[in-house]
Amino acid sequence: MTNANTPATAKTGGQLWVGCGVLAIGALMATGAVMIPAEAGYSGVGPNFLPMLVSVVLLICGAWIIWEARSGGVRNMEAPNGADAGFWSGFAWMSAGLLANAALITTIGFILSCTLCFALAVRGLRTAELEKVGAFDVKQFIKDLLIGAAIAAPVYWMFTKLLAINLPGLTPTGWI
After folding, report:
1. Cβ(39)–Cβ(46) under 8 Å?
2. What does the alpha-carbon distance between residue 176 and residue 169 come to, in Å, rounded to a whole number?
3. What is the DSSP letter of 170?
4. N-to-C CA span, the chain
5. Which of 24, 39, 112, 126 could pair covalently with 108 via S-S, beta carbons 3.0-4.6 A apart?
């Protein structure tokens, strides 16, 4: 089903370009995977196995997308019901959370940086859902920080204490 304002060829043309892009990425990855030495490691699997597997899957997906676009595109799909444009304020809040996490994780530790990332991302999702920025609600932000800490702390402890994977901490004891 096509939208009255969009011809079918325009919709399938975009899908065709996406398929070609996925196919190109798969071909580039396969080229890189072939260059990795294939010396068998544990259980006869070499270091090039996973990159080659991913590139084969990308090649299959790219060919499938191209086939779908050439044979009519996405079938029986209703027109999208979302907004005409993206909500940039929500995107900015979520981006700020991810960038703050990346910048602060080695300085303030995993738990605090992930807590901040969670609170900022939730703020972005809320503003996108409500489609307005509105006043900054301190009580809600503190709740989001507490929920973020309640999620980040057990994840940190599971990785550092149970799995013995080093994550940046705030204290030398490894509990925060």
Report:
1. yes
2. 6
3. S
4. 54
5. 112
Query: Which DSSP category does 77 fall into?
Result: P
Q: Count of CB atoms within 10 A of residue 170's CB?
A: 15
How does residue 176 score in pLDDT terms, banded at 50, 70 and 90?
low
DSSP codes, 51-73: HHHHHHHHHHHHHHHHHHHHTTS
Q: Calculate the CA 33 to chain-centre distance.
A: 23
Residue 140 and residue 119 in contact, taking contact as beta carbons nearer than 8 Å:
no
pTM confidence score = 0.55
Record the tokens describing residue 76, joined without a space: 């029986």
Angle formed by the axes of helices 138-157 and 110-130, to 10°?
A: 140
Position 104 pLDDT exceeds 70: yes
Percent of the chain with pLDDT over 90: 40
Read off the DSSP letter of residue 82. Answer: S
d(Cα 62, Cα 60) in Å, to the nearest integer? 6
Q: How confident is the model at residue 53 (pLDDT cuts 50, 70, 90)?
A: very high
Instruction: Give CA–CA dist 29/37, Å, rounded.
Output: 14
Q: Distance (Å, rounded) from C-alpha 109 to C-alpha 125? A: 24
